[in-house]
């Protein structure tokens, strides 16, 4: 929810009388984050029918990997996948993951001009409109920014499975608390924010401090 390091969380809890180490906080995240993200995902409305896809590189133990991400026309993250390559097989693997998780096909997809997308689209989404442009894809590119902030706070990821586990949960939970504020007036944003906290409390059994 917040752009804090685990050591920052340790200090905030200590200020409130809760004595734990940042390593304990890390274990909490590993144990509960995926479950919380799944619950948030079940409560969200059905995503849109226009998918924006993009991939950025991340370094894991000095080795370059690629983070594939898809968002809908409202900026809602649909899924992410960490892979070692960005060839046609990697693109098809990402498409299959999206289609299996969402269980419907998009009306259109928007990508950059990476040829791998066209190969995957032709095989797995033959009826979808495909728009390729480095300028139309800003919605997907901008959605990588929270990941970059977390990557810096965590001083890079330690392994591909760890990056996949963390980023999958982070994408859904971050999106739950960050609606598209630039499209809302103040009253609507406050209402949306209050609803997000209520859903979080219901799904995680969290209680507000007295």
Give structural notes.
A five-stranded mixed sheet has the order 3-2-1-4-5, with helices on both faces. The chain is globular, with a radius of gyration of 18 Å. It has eight helices and five strands, in the order ααβββαβαβαααα. It is of the alpha/beta class and 210 residues long. Helix 2 packs across helix 7 and helix 2 (22-43) crosses helix 8. The protein has a domain at 50-143: Ribonuclease H-like superfamily/Ribonuclease H (Nucleotidyltransferase, domain 5), CATH 3.30.420.10.
The SSE string, one letter per element, is HHEEEHEHEHHHH
Which oligomeric state applies?
Answer: single chain
Count of DSSP-assigned helices: 8
The biggest sheet amounts to: 5 strands, mixed
CATH topology of the domain at 50-143: Nucleotidyltransferase, domain 5
Mean pLDDT: 83
Instruction: Provide the helix percentage.
Output: 40-55%
Strand order of the largest sheet: 3-2-1-4-5
Q: Flag low-confidence runs.
A: none
Cα-to-Cα separation, first versus last residue: 20 Å
The total count of strands amounts to: 5
| Residue fraction in strands | 15-25%
Secondary-structure class: alpha/beta
Ordered list of secondary-structure elements with their pairings:
Blueprint: H1 6-15, H2 22-43, E1 50-60, E2 63-72, E3 77-83, H3 88-102, E4 108-111, H4 115-124, E5 129-132, H5 138-142, H6 145-153, H7 160-177, H8 186-204
Parallel strand pairs: 1-4, 4-5
Antiparallel strand pairs: 1-2, 2-3
Helix pairs in contact: 1-2, 2-7, 2-8, 3-4
Protein traits:
210 residues; alpha/beta; Nucleotidyltransferase, domain 5; five-stranded mixed beta sheet; 5 strands; 17% strand
């Amino acid at each position: 929810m917040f752009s804090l390091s685990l050591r920052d969380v340790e200090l905030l809890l200590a200020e409130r009388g809760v004595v734990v180490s940042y390593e304990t906080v890390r274990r909490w995240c590993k144990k509960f984050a995926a479950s919380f993200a799944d619950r948030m995902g079940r409560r969200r409305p059905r995503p849109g029918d226009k998918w924006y896809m993009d991939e950025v590189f991340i370094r894991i133990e000095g080795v370059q990997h690629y983070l594939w991400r898809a968002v809908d026309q409202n900026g809602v993250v649909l899924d992410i996948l960490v892979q070692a390559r960005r060839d046609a097989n990697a693109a098809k693997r990402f498409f299959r993951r999206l289609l299996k998780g969402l269980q419907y096909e998009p009306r259109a997809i928007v990508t950059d001009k990476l040829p791998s997308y066209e190969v995957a689209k032709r095989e797995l989404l033959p009826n979808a409109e495909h728009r390729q442009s480095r300028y139309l894809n800003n919605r997907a590119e901008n959605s990588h920014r929270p990941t970059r902030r977390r990557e810096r706070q965590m001083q890079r990821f330690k392994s591909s499975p760890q990056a996949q586990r963390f980023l999958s949960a982070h994408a859904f939970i971050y999106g739950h608390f960050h609606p598209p504020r630039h499209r809302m007036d103040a009253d609507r944003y406050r209402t949306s924010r209050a609803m997000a906290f209520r859903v979080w409390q219901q799904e995680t059994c969290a209680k507000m401090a007295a």
